[in-house]
Amino acid sequence: MGRKTRHVVPNSGGGWDSKKGGAERASKHFETKKEAEKYSRELSKKESSELVIHRKNGTIERSDSHGNDPNPPKDKR
After folding, report:
1. Which residue range forms the structural domain that includes residue 49?
2. Distances in Å between the alpha carbon of 31 and those of 38, 39, 62?
3. Given phi > 0 = left and psi -120 to 50 = alpha, else beta, which region is 40?
4. What is the C-alpha separation between 2 and 13, in angstroms, rounded?
5. 38-59 confidence digits (pLDDT tens)
């Protein structure tokens, strides 16, 4: 089974969408990227999934893990 993901992606009609990884349709549409990120981060934490934030051109800007990260950061002691 693959990693669960949630994406913040630009909508072709304007605004931003929150989509579950592999889904055709958006879970919810937003006017601003900031609103979409906030909503998606909350869902990602509940789903224990990876949150992937995209740029306006569709490329990945950054990602945050809210679940079982296969490559967790090393402890900085």
Report:
1. 5-64
2. 12, 12, 20
3. alpha
4. 30
5. 999 999 999 999 999 999 999 9
Q: 37: Cβ–Cβ under 8 A, 6 or more apart, which residues?
A: 8, 53
Q: What is the pLDDT of residue 12?
A: 94
Q: Does residue 71 sit within a domain?
A: no
Domain-located, residue 55:
yes
Asked if residue 74 is part of any domain, the answer here is no
67, burial (CB in 10 Å: exposed 0-12, middle 13-18, buried 19+): middle
Which residues in the chain land under pLDDT 50? 1, 76-77
Q: Is residue 27 part of a domain?
A: yes
